[in-house]
Write a structure and sequence with these properties.
InterPro entries: Hen1 (IPR026610), SAM-dependent_MTases_sf (IPR029063). Its EC number is 2.1.1.386. GO terms for molecular function: metal ion binding; RNA binding; small RNA 2'-O-methyltransferase activity. It comes from Struthidea cinerea. It is a single chain. This protein has two domains: about 230 residues, Rossmann fold (3-Layer(aba) Sandwich); about 90 residues, no CATH class. The protein is about 40% helix and about 15% strand. The protein has 15 helices and eleven strands. An eight-stranded mixed β-sheet has the order 6-7-5-4-1-2-3-8, with helices on both faces. Strands 9-10-11 form a three-stranded antiparallel β-sheet. Strand 1, helix 3 and strand 2 form a beta-alpha-beta unit. Helix 9 runs antiparallel to helix 13. The chain is elongated, with a radius of gyration of 30 Å. The structure holds S-adenosyl-L-homocysteine (SAH). S-adenosyl-L-homocysteine binds next to helix 2 and strand 2.
């Protein structure tokens, strides 16, 4: 074999990163560009793309569909929340669901998605299913964006060992003209526009072969109104749900409350420590101690630009130290979590020890010393 050709050959057969990763990265880039909230991956196989997408912070609903339940089940546990997700719940909500079923059938659980991805799926469909596919995806699901990728058969001669198709389960592989005419006709029928691109560049001098994987990005031309979508859609469920994970989120009051309580106690402790260390500084000198007036000065370095009002000053009384809730609320993290002072009061009610009028967090100094 000619040395030049051999070099090109090795270069293209070893795509870096691997081609499946390039396809998934293509989808991820699209998600980052269009920021869809609800994404469905059809023919999701071992859920790799879904796993990658769960880290995209714009996504709140992720769904996978595959005709083979076993392949989905293999790695579906990777879609479950981790301990860290419970320790630090995210601000966004995220639900991931896997369905067992065929893209040739309509199911209401596939309605309302912004982006639908079909990565290396269509070439696995038998002719009758391929015929039904556009009506299900573009007519019924009708998301704003559909991404379809499929092998480009013109690239096959550049791949070693490919005789007819790249995979034994492929029912066909289209050249660029075949894919583009199918895609343009589908787009025309369902009022979408389509743009063609791909991943897996051909080697220099062989540009005519096109990308190894050809991709069509379909964008719906007209927005759908909620009522028109739902009213005429069937409601009978035909898919079987095989997995569902609801991630802990600060949108859920239960997790928000935990996060606020921890942050309030943490903030109050910091303020208290500053106050106490200042107090101890004065403590060895009885004369100075009698003059000790805890004020915001003792931790002003920490509080930065905090607006200081008289009723925001922490104070000591007997064996208790009081940290006004107004002070705690002015800390950015507490403020952001709660939104309003009323919400802060509501969330910590009964969970944090407060002064009798409920305006300050109360700590016992003795307890603190025992701990030390
Ligand atoms: N999208 C995956 C894998 C594609 S392989 C990736 O990016 O790597 C094609 C997948 O489509 C297989 O898992 C196969 O089980 C599934 N599939 C085949 N026919 C299907 C159908 N009619 N409905 C749904 N999924 C189907």
């Amino acid at each position: 074999m000619d040395k030049n050709f051999q070099e090109k050959f090795t270069q293209i057969t070893k795509f870096k990163p691997p081609l499946y990763k390039q396809r998934h990265q293509f989808v991820k880039d699209l998600v980052e560009k269009y920021k869809p909230k609800k994404v469905a991956d059809l023919g999701c196989a071992d859920c790799r793309l879904l796993w990658m997408l769960k880290f995209c912070s714009c996504i709140e609903v992720l769904a996978g569909l595959d005709i083979c339940a076993n392949v989905m089940k293999e790695k579906m546990h990777t879609l479950s929340p981790l301990p860290v997700d419970y320790l630090q719940p995210s601000e966004r909500s995220l639900t991931i669901t896997l369905h067992h079923g065929s893209v040739a059938h309509k199911d209401p659980c596939m309605l309302g998605f912004d982006l639908v991805t079909c990565i290396e799926l269509i070439e696995h469909l038998e002719e009758p299913d391929l015929k039904k596919f556009p009506e299900v995806v573009f007519g019924f699901m009708a998301p704003s964006i559909v991404v379809i990728s499929t092998p480009n058969s013109e690239f096959n001669p550049l791949l070693p060992g490919v005789m007819l198709y790249r995979h034994p389960d492929h029912k066909f592989e289209w050249n660029q003209a075949q894919f583009q005419s199918w895609a343009l006709e589908t787009a025309r029928c369902y009022d979408y526009s389509v743009e063609f691109t791909g991943v897996g560049h051909p080697p220099t001098g062989m540009e005519k072969a096109g990308f190894c994987t050809q991709i069509g990005v379909f964008i719906r031309k007209y927005p759908q109104t909620g009522e028109s979508v739902q009213s005429e859609k069937p409601t009978e469920a035909v898919y079987k749900t095989v997995f569902k994970a609801v991630y802990p989120s600060l949108k859920d009051e239960k997790y928000l409350q935990n996060a606020v309580i921890s942050e309030v106690i943490f903030t109050a402790q910091i303020i208290k420590h500053r106050l106490m260390s200042k107090h101890e500084e004065y403590g060895n000198d009885p004369e100075r101690k009698s003059k000790f007036q805890p004020s915001m000065d003792c931790f002003s370095d920490y509080l930065g630009n905090l607006v200081v009002e008289k009723n925001m000053e922490p104070f000591l009384s007997g064996n208790e130290v009081y940290i006004p809730l107004a002070t705690i609320f002015s800390f950015p993290k507490v403020n952001r979590l709660c939104g309003t002072f009323e919400k802060l009061c509501k969330l910590i009610a009964g969970k944090v020890t407060l002064s009798s009028d409920g305006s300050a967090v109360m700590f016992s100094i003795e307890c603190e010393n025992e701990d030390d």
